[in-house]
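Loading example: each entry is read as three labelled lines plus one structure line.
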Amino acid sequence: MTDHLPVLLVVVPLVAAPIAALLNHPRLSWAVAVAATLWTLYAGLELLSQTMASGVIHYELGGWAAPYGIEYVVDPLNAWVVVIVTLIGALIAPYARVSVEREITEDRIPLFYAAFILCLTGLLGIAVTGDVFNVFVFLEISSLSAYALIALGSDRRALTASFQYLIMGSVGATFIVIGIGLMYVMTGTLNMADLADRLPEVASSRTIPVAFTFLTVGITLKLALFPLHLWLPNAYTYAPSAVTAFIASTATKVAVYLLLRFFFTIFGATFSFDVMQLDRILMPLALIAIVAMSLVAIYQENVKRLLAYSSVAQIGYMVLGISFASVLGLTAGILHLFNHALMKGALFMSMGCVMYRVGSVRLERMNGLGRAMPWTMAAFVVGGLSLIGVPLTVGFVSKWYLVQAALEQGMWPVAGVVLLGSLLALMYVWKVVEVAYFREADPELGISEAPLSLLAPTWLLVLGNLYFGINASDSVGVATRAAEMLLGVLS
Amino acid sequence: MVGFYTLIARGNLVKKIIGLNIFQTSVFILYITMGKITGGTAPIFVEGGEDVIYSNPIPHVLILTAIVVGVATSAVGLSLVIRIKEAFGTIEEDEIQDESL
Amino acid sequence: MIDTNLVVGVCLLLPVLGAFLVLVFGSRPNVREAATLLTGGLTFWHVWGLLHHVREGARPRLELLEIVPGVQLAFEVEPLGLLFALVASFLWIVTTLYAIGYMRGHHEKNQTRFFFFFAIAIAGALGVAFSANLFTLFAFYEVLTLCTFPLVTHHQTDEARKAGRVYLGILLTTSVAFQLLAIIWTWQLADTVDFTEGGILSGTASNGVLSAILVLFVFGVGKAAVMPFHRWLPAAMVAPTPVSALLHAVAVVKAGVFTVLKVAVYIFGIDLLGTLAATTWLAWIAAATIILGSLVAFQKDNLKARLAYSTISQLSYIVLGALLANEWGVIGGGMHIAMHAFGKITLFFAAGAVLVAAHEKDISRMHGLGRRMPITFGAFFIGSLSIIGLPPAGGSWSKWFLGMGTLEAGQVGLLAVLMLSSLLGLYYLLEVPVKAFFFRPPDDAQRGKGIKEAPLPSLIAIGITASATVGFFFWPDLWHELMSMVVSGVTQ
């Protein structure tokens, strides 16, 4: 069975989704979701250890040989992404049971789980496939289910947020498809490895740079890199808490993975950076994202929206690392994929707990919550410390590598901006801490701590923040290997 | 381009979806033109003819997939519009924004 | 019995253990306080035990984890760190005694929370003292900032909250924006962040780059209160006096100047430091802080505020010592860590005693109080002598060495600064006991009935530190010996 893991990784949830929908019962559908996510987590971890030990894994679908057949390719980079996505999925599934009861009407709950599993399928498919059109298909699978998930939010603005995301996301996907089409015209293949071989010959034609451009715009839109991030704040704010926690920790990460795959593996670092000068675009945008979005976050009264803007800033960090196009820079960016998933996952989950008990995530309703819900707010504090980059948390490790990468290139103003981002994060985290711990709670409200089924997954992520902050050697090891492979530096 | 413009400029949500559709369809046509090879015929295997030039079937396959995706997107989009109409009473973007404030 | 290297770990664990004992016994104050005292005693005893090994040239080392490849969480005991640890762990015991008297006498609330974070803060300070590399130091430095925050904002009033913001804001901003940048840059250049005899940075980059890093370090260590990043110190005076005493006369601020000294000696190395362009003008910034701190202290009527600015001024003595880049300066700076700690804590203890017993905060209202509280103000007098640098108080020794250091560096101007500051101190510090003993009380002040000396535990604490201050005049050997080992680089 282990031979077929790459495809089973995707097929099992793909089948589980309609089962969850057909069962049409909240508890049963939930059970299917938990089972599916646990399976994918197991598969993901197995794949990661295999690929770290023995190198790239190739799997041909249906036995049709590449490059004519569709091939699944697993290397340290995408195995890492798979682990991130499945880990978050496996934590959100149990978390969701109680959380969605409050936020989604009961008749829709089975559909929620179906869409959730489908979204997971899509994301995993993007991660493991070696065929670019396959990427598009899975991208749309994950996006469509994401639109549906977001629209399940209780506030009616969830609908408009979802619609806005649909429009922007579809435009992005269409751009990607245009890019893929143009590449196909010039090379005659859709297989990633094959494209990588054939592109250099045709790179001088006018078509390829155009393709490159369409792809860049399309992917950065899905990534929510400033200024194409407009869909994100509303989508994160109004979606149900479990959905936000899931999507915030996975969807954009997979988009970053796509960026890496296209620009390093397929086009190659030389073309992307020396010829097309991608860094000239990515780096300034990333820097602006870090500063501007953190500033905007400081002024938010709705904590989910605050965290959403924070996420756009954090994506800036990831893209910044990538724009250095060095081993250190890529390591930092890839590492931050994982670390940010841990951080934001924990933060959004803690907000889900707050939503569950308080019914709102607006700061004005959170007075004195530090005493009423000590575990929940403590989780938020640790996540916040991680965002700031206090040592012994994962956030620190990301910053350590990112600043190093900047200094290695002699760009110490950039290093300064990275640290400035930390200070801005301090300000918006502090805003929440002050309200929770320094104001008196309204005793009438009688708010109690969140239930264990919500707290446990949250705290697992929080502990992950601390564990991987103290013992980062494993995550750094994988990230470095992935970075080296992407740049063609063999270890 | 027409599609893209409609998408951005029109405030009515349904028109946005139509714009999206036009945009996507134009991409399909792009792919189809790629597939046609000069002098090629329909890509169905002809017995005993090794010298026959075929048009490339792959773009057609890709388009089919993309069409399905496009349909699904429009479906989701339109159902969202219905729900929005129920919730906000309008499908004009500006009015919805006023409602949200 | 136990492997010496493990003793280091024990020293760090004991305060944490003590903190949890405090939590457990929260509802039984006497048991809780006994637990703190016991833990404090054990901690000091173990730290003292390390002295013997360090004297022989050993450097006990404990490596815990590797965070990222090449960067470890590790501890190593060397003379300077041991000096700081001895001061901190000893004064923890004394301050606990004092706090018992103060917190109960003042009917303070949330005492369990107070003693808990106190213990954690000591663990943080010891972590800084025993750190083997910049990363470990930075980690514990931040721990110290975070866990002293609840202590500073203990009263939870609006004023406390605002002060807390300033405190956290300045300390975290300087540490993240400057210190962390400097640390990563050092890592980039030297491929290591371990504290090493003779420093790790020589020859790695140009004079200009290394100067920039030095600047980042000096301003990045906000706890050293070098101007203009000093505002957090007076803001933190809103805390209960035991907090001000231990943390802001001893642990937090000393962690700051300790860091500056340690970086100067073990990252840059004294020789390299002398060649950098930035060293001289940073020394003058320290000098400016010394003078300005004293001048502002002059104008403050609130006793704690005056002491706060005096501390800012005194801290820059140690920073100056480091930046003189010669042996005298380093010895003087290191000794001043100990001398100033004991002297200042006495002053703060006295200020707190006046608050509890007589309910007075402002100096102008303390006239004549000395007759009612002779021990308190007597101790204040002794503490003042140390700060000013007069015999028979220990502070005179550290001042002597610092003065020699300025001459060695050829900076007579800096010597003048030291002299001037002493003169100012003469006035703004001695004013207090003089007016307390010899002036007549203001008309509306309550004197007579009910005002007696401070609570007994507090008095004992004051007595211990005041005696130590005088004692160190006659026996400065311990501190001098440790600092000599630092400059001569004696190892096994």
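Chain A touches chain B at residues 133, 136-137, 140, 144, 147-148, 151, 156-157, 159-160, 162-163, 166-167, 170-171, 173-174, 177-178, 181, 184-185, 190 (CB under 8 Å).
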